[in-house]
Amino acid sequence: MELDLSRLSVAEIRRHFLDQKDSASLGLLARLQKDPREGVRKICHQLKTRREKEKAERIRIESMLNLECVLWNSGIRHIAGADEVGVGPLAGPVVAAAVVFPPGTFISRVDDSKRLSPQVRREVVRTIRQRALGIGVGLAEVAEIDELNVYHAGLLAMRRAVENLPLRPDHLLVDAREIPGLSMPQNKFSKGDGLSFSIAAASIVAKTYRDQLMVELGQTYPQYGLDRNKGYGTREHQEAIRRHGPCAIHRKSYTFIQELCGEYSDLFYRLREKTQRLSSVRELTDLETELEAVQSQLSPRERRKIRLLLTKNWSRASPSEVQ
Questions:
Q1: How many domains, the chain?
Q2: Range of the domain at 30
Q3: Pair 28, 77 in one domain
Q4: Which helix (H) or strand (E) holds 266?
Q5: How confident is the model at residue 132 (pLDDT cuts 50, 70, 90)?
Q6: Of 201, 203, 248, 191, which Cα lies nearest the Cα of 223?
Q7: Phi, psi at residue 108, to the nearest 5°?
């Protein structure tokens, strides 16, 4: 039996409909729209806006599920999405996840983990863990990153994530590349964490797992602010490395770590400081000339680094100045 809206106060209508998470029916919206009270019409407008957002989100998720639906409809049941996070940081492992959902799964707000706030990631990952048939997590530790390079360490972490699934997937969807050493069919998709529902879910699982791991490592190494920077090269983190040196979880093969630790020549640091103070094309040209004169005194990696900094400065120079 329909509620008699005329007998309800605006506050009661708000509690009955706006404070609930269920979508308002078109019939209810039509009744609210006819109500003479301004407060009720405002509630109607808010409910319409919510309904439109929910429709847009449903269309977005359905689009992200297109790859999975094609495979599910062809009879393939266990489809795993795989992704890794933590390629860019100066510290900590690369973490990968693989996720398998039952056919027909729909979870709102699943997206590339980089597009979601930490709070939304934590909320969504709880639903992912409740709804998934299986989740596997794999790590490539810092020693493996330094030995293999971070690209191959990422592949290793993804392979371990797939192998750690509680069930064997029939098909694998991967962000950007194929994972070696696995026998099941794979499809790779550029920017797959924004295209595939399963890959995006894997990116969320991996990101929340790694973030929590870095918070825990921050308790062991409190001087680096890992609970805040998660190992990324923030100004605070760079200053901590300069002050304390790298610790056991820093990626010492990274040239930037070596640079922060003073492992380059005095000439390199002098030239690098000059690149940070350049403000005109004339100064850029003068530094180019100076670099030509002293380049034999720099190691190949020092020359490459200074050249890269100069190129960035040239790209920021005013076109009229360059001419």
A1: 3
A2: 5-59
A3: no
A4: helix 266-275
A5: very high
A6: 248
A7: -65, 155
